[in-house]
Amino acid sequence: MTSTRPLDRFRSSPLLWPLVALVVLLAANAVVRPSFLALRFQDGHLYGSLVDILKNGAPTLLIALGMCLVIATRGIDLSVGAVVAIAGAVACSSIVGAGDPTSAKAAFVGMGLALALCAVLGLWNGFLVAALRIQPIIATLVLMTAGRGIAMLITDGQIITVRNPTFRTVGAGFLLLPVSILIAVAVFVLVAIVTRKTALGLLIESVGINPEASRLAGLRSRTIRWTVYVFAAICAGIAGLMISSNVSAADANNAGLWIEMDAILAVVIGGTSLAGGRYSLAGTLLGALIIQTLTTTVYSMGIAPEITLVFKAVVVIAVCLLQAPKVRAVLLRRTPRRPARPVSDAEPAAAQHAQTPTASMVEKVAQS
Amino acid sequence: MSVDAKQAPREAGRAAVVQMRGISVEFPGVKALQEVDFRLLPGEVHALMGENGAGKSTLIKALTGVYTPTAGVTLLDGREVSFSGPADAQDSGISTVYQEVNLCPNLTVAENILLGREPRRFGAVDGRACRARAAELLADMGLHIDPGSVLAEHPIAIQQLVAIARAVAVDAKVLILDEPTSSLDQDEVAELFRIMRVLRDRGVAILFVSHFLEQVYEISDRMTVLRNGRLVGEHLTADLSRLDLVSLMIGRELGALAEVERLAGQAGEEASTVPVLQATGVGRKGSVAPFDLQINRGEVVGLAGLLGSGRTELARLLFGADRPDSGQVRIDGKALHLRSPRAAIAAGIAYCSEDRKGEGVVADLSIRDNLILAMQAANGWARPIPRKTKDQLVEKWIKALDIRPADPDALVGKLSGGNQQKVLLARWLITKPKVLILDEPTRGIDIGAKTQIQKLVAELAQEGMAVVYISAELEEVARLSHRVVVMKDRSKIAELDQHATVDDIMRLIAHVDERSEAVAA
Amino acid sequence: MTTSATPVKGKAPLGAILRGRSVPGRVVPVIATFVLFVLLFGVGAARYEGFTSGQVVANLFIDNAFLIVIAVGMTFVIVTGGIDLSVGAVVALSTMVAAASLRAGLPAPLVVLLVLLMGSTLGLLMGLVIHYFEIQPFIVTLAGMFLARGLCFVVGVESISIKDPTFRSFATAAIPLSQNVSITWSVVIALALVAVAVWVLHRTRFGRTAYAVGGSESSATLMGLPVAKVKIGVYVISGLCSAIAGLLFSLYMLSGYGLHAVGMELDAIASVVIGGTLLSGGVGYVLGSLLGVLVLGVIQTLISFQGTLSSWWTKIAIGTLLLLFIVMQRVFMRRQP
Prior knowledge:
Chain C: InterPro entries: ABC_transp_permease. The structure holds three protein chains of three kinds. Chain A is mostly helical. Chain A has helices spanning 5-12, 16-32, 49-72, 80-97, 104-131, 136-155, 165-172, 179-196, 200-209, 211-216, 221-247, 259-269, 281-300, 308-354, 359-367, and strands at residues 40-42, 45-47, 160-161, 174-175, 177-178, 249-250. Chain B is of the alpha/beta class. The longest helix of chain B is centred in the middle third of the chain and has 16 residues, at 186-201. The model of chain B is unreliable at 1-12 and 512-521 (pLDDT under 50).
């Protein structure tokens, strides 16, 4: 998709288990309900359970993409759920307050305003993390706690409903496929290209693995960290627009509730370590799809939707455990190599130097 | 001279406290130790010698139960033992102090010494008794610090001594000191040795590992030499000359070092007087007093001084790693605003940090990515280096510096110290710097890589690069440098020419301060 | 960070003055929290009539007894450098299990035992996974949170009210402290727990080892300390505390519901941080966490006394406080990034 790298990696591959999990889930659905895999074409729209999964998973995927880059720099952004709520609140209250609440102009102004504010919130998080050097988990906890309060402040504690066709397109519109899918895919492709076709991905990983070494190698570590937080906040903003557009309302209390957890899960299931460094966008995509498929599966099997959580927990534990013994196996294979490596380092050097002209001379000294 | 000196007559009467016979440690495809015999007598300091990879740490780990030997027996006081881990070994009286201080910086000195075996009252830790007992132990070692103070408030050297106090507090029969001196300055080493002697005289068997030959000769009574996982010999320190020891350790000789000397000599004649870098009045409060420094084309300038003398801090200022708060740096006559490493790099300065793992290599990236990192950072993220150029560069430098394994995709974290250092050097050489600052480039790496790196420095200077060379090993500095800048107490105190000897440098460092003079003498 | 030339400085002049001997800067946030508590209370006393009445103070404890209990457990976990996101969900599950089993006719003591057992077991499981599979606590306890919330709805989707007479009498019983002031049994339990926790964390080997693990886990292992026992133990303690808090919460609400205590983990973490515990581990005080809870409680009381301010201001205030204390920690602790 981006370069040959995802394909290369696949073989060894942290993507294997997530992919297996996704396939098993889809297969289970198909077995229980054969119509699951069916796609219908109607009125120029594509319908089907698979399309639904993609559509409902779009916000999580978007946020997970931002989260993935943040996590790659050794960070984490707990505030995205609050940002989702704020984005919806700003957009809806702006649209409602506009001269003509149904016009396209009102929608664009509202959405522009919302995204701009999200960027500012991202700057704020970045400021705390990159400039004040506060641990990311605490720094973003601030906005996570205060953010919903801010959203409620904007909506005055009410659920604001809007009737704006342009705004509605973002979350509920169709362009053969639901527009939200197209947006999410576009962002995914954009991120993939920008990070992997340029050197940005390498620099992000480098900052995540060793920030100080990166700074001394001349990287703008601070700018890079700052950027990913802004990006994560904008992703959350777009997701927030999607969510509120889908229901044509801003619900400061419940919009994007726990979505940060879903996003972090998606990233982790996709094989990116919370310790930062190497990241996988493809894995994140798989992770987001797994989570959404799971939710949809529970719905379609007629189980009370609240119980989805139990299954989510089971999947998280399963995937983590599947990955863990693997990590341990790798470690077990790695430990014995440690003493071996310096040996191979010293041996050839010795062989090489033994042939220097002065060698015989010192040999004599040693024997005397 | 007998390599197989199995019995040393002078200790014939004493029974070994630790006896390891025919120890082999194997991992899939690797024989880390092969039938090694080792013994440790009570009341001796026993040095374990060998290059990196010789099997020193493996032997220690086999002794303390981190690894299980595939063959051989270990006897402690004549009884066969097999430990499940360091804690188990410690319970039997074998304590280990590691290179990095393995204590908890957030706890008090007393807690660090006694944690896990504190005096208790009614099931609760008795804080007062705890501090009293710790004070007693510290006083025993001649250390007078407040046991109630938090460990992190003390310098690393004191922390190291606290670690030893902890090891001793269990009434250790065997004390293993694994590279305890690598972050200590001369005074602190002297203090450590004093304490080691106290313990030795009390009958503790001390196993000492160090890269510093001088120290080994100063403190040890006997040594065991390993090479490539095999026992090469056990000798009384007094019976083995330094040259013999080195040839036992590396199984070859010092020809390469002689060549370094020759190259350095040649370069010295050719060193120009064209200044590349001129620093005037550069300093930073609490770090380095303002200093002047000129570095010429093709010149190696050595920075000598004890740890904490300001040598690393000076280098960091020149590189913009810390921001100078006074003075000016000119490169090729042009004034330079040193606000970040990035600005310094753009002006043609490169810096290899002494902390290779923490501030040098990016462990989880491949050799390829590490090599091009500085160049890529200078280019900016939007202009990636084309794959082809990348491959050519990487191939060239892996070959030129003999980086092993020669696989561009190998993760740098898995390389040996010497090879990591080479990767770091290559990263900077790719950017074609005018000034290359090397901070302890040879610390903790084996002699083979050491000579390679020193040779490279001489060659680079010959080609016209200006090099700043920092090392705790004064011989190295004196040998390589055209000029030696001597640092003391965070300021530059002297500049010596090419003919400077180790003695000259030592005298300067020891001057005025009687305490350090005593150490130097 | 590599040379002994730049030793870490952890002293604060203020701390030194206060105790007259070397006291690390780590106490300063706790003192600041106390000062803040007094200030906030002073503001309330100055502005609103009746704010200083003993019952307002008593209510502070009554309304936050469960939060105090959770914050105590959370302190243990955070001191070791971990985090427990599952506490709110375990509280909800505890109310649910308690309510459902009481409805099923189980005797109250058995129900209490059952709930405590369940909480500890959940904590134990999470601790085992965290320690032995080396998965980040954040993820494991997040899974624990999902599991506990999900199990709530397996027990029942609707709220279940508690009609058991023992529970009801226990919940409504008031312990008079003076003529006008009374507290509930919940407060007594919570404060007793605080006392026990202070003793365990600060005075026992288990507690000191928890600090050691938080300071440097690898060092603690090499020092031969029982790292596994302590690392798993703190999650058991946190699980147990959550279960106790769940029981107190069911006394407070007299119902069990899967949506009880949503976001309570955030309040608990915020209290612990405001109480001066470092999220990176190794530094913290149980009493600090108690103060942290009380500060949050005073803010809520202030906002309710004010009357016109809406409830969301509480969230914004907590967020702002968090920010203040985090910045203060940076100033006083000068930790490495």
